[in-house]
Design brief:
globular; 188 residues; mainly alpha; 6 helices; 73% helix
């Protein structure tokens, strides 16, 4: 059940990120065309695109954490025996959880401070901007806890005990998943 929940949340994150990116592209492109072609523009375009970009980046960071897609330096970790790899994953995870607490607390404080301030053109509260830090901190914290739990309790090969995956390995795994999901075996 938990795996299905994480898959649903991952899918929701992906769709939200795609929607943010598509809307940003439409707003910015449309504004450029209107500005240069018709000497007018979309008033909310800049503010809304900036707000969407912040949400896109922070939601994308949560998604990347879950998929082990963040850039990382794992040269030291790869040379350690499995027990020490797990200890290192737990230690760095705890450090990252502390950073998540900073995001949640700071985001909460900034949200409360800016609750009555609003965007000049959009007219919505700046809380929508600073609230993204709260969502990021909580979402990233959940992802980190799951990653630590997975590393410490599930059987893994020594190569799998890394918080980052090689891009080539990720592409091969994705191809394998897509081909088996569609009922076809891998092509030779």
């Amino acid at each position: 059940m938990f795996i299905r929940l994480t898959q649903a949340v991952t899918r929701a994150l992906e769709l939200t990120i795609v929607a943010c990116l598509a809307l940003m592209a439409l707003l910015v492109f449309g504004n450029v065309v209107l500005r240069y072609g018709f000497d007018s523009g979309i008033a909310v375009s800049e503010e809304l695109a900036r707000l969407l970009f912040v949400w896109l980046v922070l939601l994308g960071a949560i998604l990347a954490s879950r998929q082990h897609a963040h850039i990382g330096f794992d040269t030291l970790v790869k040379s350690l025996p499995p027990r020490w790899k797990k200890a290192t994953i737990a230690f760095t995870g705890l450090l990252m959880l502390a950073a998540c607490v900073v995001f949640v607390v700071g985001g909460w404080q900034q949200t409360n401070i800016n609750l009555d301030n609003s965007y000049p053109v959009l007219g919505i509260s700046y809380a929508w901007l600073h609230g993204s830090a709260i969502v990021f901190g909580v979402g990233m914290g959940i992802s980190i806890v799951f990653n630590i739990w997975d590393a410490l309790t599930q059987p893994h090969t020594p190569e799998e005990l890394s918080m980052t995956l090689n891009l080539g390995e990720r592409i091969e795994a994705e191809i394998e998943q897509v081909s088996t999901h569609h009922g076809k075996g891998p092509k030779a």
